[in-house]
């Protein structure tokens, strides 16, 4: 990763653009996909998972608007690329935990984070039948890179006061904000993702 700091008061689009320039997608792909690393397309990484296309990831991160010092959760961390991007956006004082259901992808993501020297981030094996990381909640920001059939209440419950989750639901990207007991959701754009396993 580049050492160039992201101004914390910069617009989300600028901070996300800087993070994506600093965190090379090539470092988070299997060897057979390296030639497509900088193409704006989803890439298969095995086990029915993909590394989402950069424009989609950028749109999700802009809506999520992670800030320095945030505690972030990356659901469906896959190859570790989105986990590394989140780590860049919440640094230097923030932290990120990625969760992934496939053990082989957990190993892949961990190896990529280690090789790239990503601070403040780790990837854990998802617990069967349980979404997210409730034992470590609350989180300020939750990114979900798989499509749910309905808004996962389990993840909303893991949000801190003032927290936000971005999750694809039936083809629409949902942005959900929590302020105390008040939960508000809005839909933005149409996107295609692999199914979120473990959701109701």
UniProtKB/TrEMBL annotation:
Instruction: Tell whether Cell membrane is among the UniProt keywords.
Output: no
Question: Mainly localized where?
Answer: cytoplasm
Q: What is its EC number?
A: 2.1.1.77
Q: What class of enzyme is it?
A: transferase
Q: Which UniProt keywords apply?
A: Cytoplasm, Methyltransferase, S-adenosyl-L-methionine, Transferase
Pfam families the record matches: PCMT (PF01135)
Record flagged with keyword Cell division = no
Tell me the domain of life: Bacteria
Where is this chain's protein located in or outside the cell? Cytoplasm
Question: Gene3D superfamilies annotated for this entry?
Answer: Vaccinia Virus protein VP39 (3.40.50.150)
> According to its UniProt record, which protein family does this protein belong to?
Belongs to the methyltransferase superfamily. L-isoaspartyl/D-aspartyl protein methyltransferase family.
Could you tell me which PANTHER family the record lists for this protein? PROTEIN-L-ISOASPARTATE O-METHYLTRANSFERASE, PROTEIN-L-ISOASPARTATE(D-ASPARTATE) O-METHYLTRANSFERASE
Q: What is this protein called?
A: Protein-L-isoaspartate O-methyltransferase
> Organism, per UniProt?
Georgenia daeguensis
Q: What is the lineage of its organism?
A: Bacteria, Bacillati, Actinomycetota, Actinomycetes, Micrococcales
